[in-house]
Amino acid sequence: MWRNLLLRGTTCLLQVAAPRFLHQRPFPPFSCVRLLTQRLLHRPPQLLDKGYFLAHSGTRAYKNDAKSALEIPTTPVTITDIKQYLRSKDIPFHDGHSCLHIQSIFINPSDRKDSYCLFIDKTTGQFLCKDTMVEGSWEDIQDCLEVMQKQEQDFLSPHVLLGYSESMEEQEERESELREVQRIWSSSVPLTDVPEEEALLVKTMFQISKVSNATLKKFGVRLFKPTKSLVFPWFGGPDSSLKGVKLLSAQRTDKNKVIYKEATVPKCNSFHSLFGLPLVGRMDAEVVLTGSELDTLAVSQATGLPSVALPRGASCLPPILLPYLEQFKRVTLWLGDDIRSWEASKIFSRKLGLRRCSLVRPGEYRPCPMEALAQGKNLGQIIKSSIPAAHKSIVSFKQLREDVYGELSNTEQVAGVKWARFPELNRILKGHRKGELTVFTGPTGSGKTTFISEVALDLCTQGVNTLWGSFEINNVRLAKVMLTQFAMQRLENNLEQYDFWADKFEELPLYFMTFHGQQNIKAVLDTMQHSVYLYDINHVIIDNLQFMMGQEHLSVDKFAVQDHIIGAFRKFATNSSCHVTLVIHPRKEEDDRDLQTASIFGSAKASQEADNVLILQEKKLATRPGRRSLQITKNRFDGDVGIFPLDFLKSSLTFEAPIQGKHKLRKVAFKPENEGGEGMKVEGKKVEVKKEKVAKVAKAPRTVTGKESVQK
């Protein structure tokens, strides 16, 4: 299903964690790429063979290593287009699970040995040569093949593909990270060299007492003594050199619980490592994919099977890693012991190819690999009992039985990710779940964008990969608001703290669409599909629906257009297992009336298709800011609905529930100006009547029944 996801609009993604996108350098248009091809065509053949510097401009440089991030293609490409082009060039290829395999055009034919080591992603067209670590876009490989055909060359130097030179800041940052990697690695010691008592204490702290020293030595695990952290190396490249490290530290909380924290050098957005990959043989046909390095140690020791760990666990499977998993005919995904890991396994299996994937279903008798090893369970038997990812059909309750039991036994995890800043939302909605559609509305000027940005930021800080589509507010202003909410303070008054908070904000899995103003729904959906494939997006915010109804729909009924758009978002959320939050403006209502579900603009389809309906209510006051409250009018998960007040903190642009009892609304009798005296008299009479009734009730004797007297 992933083959048709890469269509138009895929250039409309902006990652907050990639500063090179925030400070863009002037990239040449596509015509300049073709100009580069023409220059290559007129170069002497000997220059192409020897890999001399081919100058495109004064700022070009060698591209000796793999890029830290995938470039987003500028034109749509399909698997059919790729195959037809390769056949037109008489290039043989193997149809793999997620990539097409061809012989590398960057290796001399005498050295290839019929090795199909160049992989072309079926969805994006991105390619990677594993032997030379050359990678690029589909346009890049087309240019290279045109050069070879024109010059009648058998191969090209890996240095033909040139990249833009780094700025001084980027170069210094990269060199600083490499020095930091070497410093940590050289300062750490193998666990086998640590004194026995200290090693036993470290193993107990990280709950790896059952892991043998031989396994730790085999995987190169070390101890960084200054922080008492385990160090997991990342070896990559043709020479298997040290590219990065991951540090795992243990901390004790106030509640006497131990939590584990990870840190990677370089940063996580450029940390594309499969821990354990150097130990995999070329002839191995089966692998176990885990969500942590410790689980990989457990699987390898207990079963002897090849096992690798994803760099970011169950949160993301970068497509750049897919070529390294192509050789395996069977991939078992054992990412953890919770529902979130189970959902991630099903999503990742689509990228890897459903037919070859098997999933270990979490359960009481199937914990994560390290816990299973500690409990003395048979890990090999658990892997053999894994279920295939592809099901033809479900014909009876027998196929659903385990899924139903899993939801009943893991109610908290099934409810989704909890909000840290909005406990009242947890009380009503129970959590944030994948595959749902949330409709959010509120009066104009009530702070819809500000509120929903904090709700999304809350989830993003907990590892929910988020994509923002802000068509009303540009990305710079939106990022400024979210950074203020993240820092919980006005940074314009504390500019000396900007870099500190900006560095932390960059680490969030947060992306922005570059759309602004009226947009075509197809372009937006294509961008969303592309982001799900590349970055495993779990939450998409569209602000707002009215910007999807552009000028091309003037001759069509606007309600029919809106229904079509809502149906498209509903289908995307279900098929992609991604939560979509859709902001819709309400109909015009009286200022003194609360909004209802029927107040959502358009037909009833929006509320019918939605799993959750949230309304930001505002009581406007003449002398001070209005009182806001959040009302949940629909909750398909368990039916709970409700309303709770919100206070807006202007100093941090955040919302919070007020202290209980602070906002107690009292009904005040309305008194017309010309009837003030009569109103007082009438009100006084009512009070007197009430007092008389109370007095009569008090004087009336109370009859005690026999049963009551016995009870007393």
From TrEMBL:
InterPro entries: DNA_helicase_DnaB-like_C, P-loop_NTPase, TOPRIM_DnaG/twinkle, Twinkle-like
GO cellular component, one term: mitochondrial nucleoid
One of the protein's GO biological processes: mitochondrial DNA replication
Keyword annotations: ATP-binding, DNA replication, Helicase, Hydrolase, Isomerase, Lipid-binding, Membrane, Mitochondrion, Mitochondrion inner membrane, Mitochondrion nucleoid, Nucleotide-binding, Transit peptide
Pfam families membership: AAA_25
Compartments (UniProt record): Mitochondrion inner membrane; Mitochondrion matrix, Mitochondrion nucleoid
Domain SF4 helicase intervals: 411-662
Transmembrane segments: none
Molecular function per GO: 5'-3' DNA helicase activity; ATP binding; hydrolase activity; lipid binding; single-stranded DNA binding
Catalytic reactions on record: ATP + H2O = ADP + phosphate + H(+)
UniProt enzyme class: isomerase
EC identifiers of the protein: 5.6.2.3
Main location (coarse class): mitochondrion
Membrane topology note: Peripheral membrane protein
PANTHER family documented for this protein: T7-LIKE MITOCHONDRIAL DNA HELICASE (PTHR12873), TWINKLE MTDNA HELICASE (PTHR12873:SF0)
General function of this protein: Mitochondrial helicase involved in mtDNA replication and repair. Might have a role in mtDNA repair. Has DNA strand separation activity needed to form a processive replication fork for leading strand synthesis which is catalyzed by the formation of a replisome complex with POLG and mtSDB. Preferentially unwinds DNA substrates with pre-existing 5'-and 3'- single-stranded tails but is also active on a 5'- flap substrate. Can dissociate the invading strand of immobile or mobile D-loop DNA structures irrespective of the single strand polarity of the third strand.
Name assigned to this protein: Twinkle mtDNA helicase
Organism name: Champsocephalus esox (pike icefish)
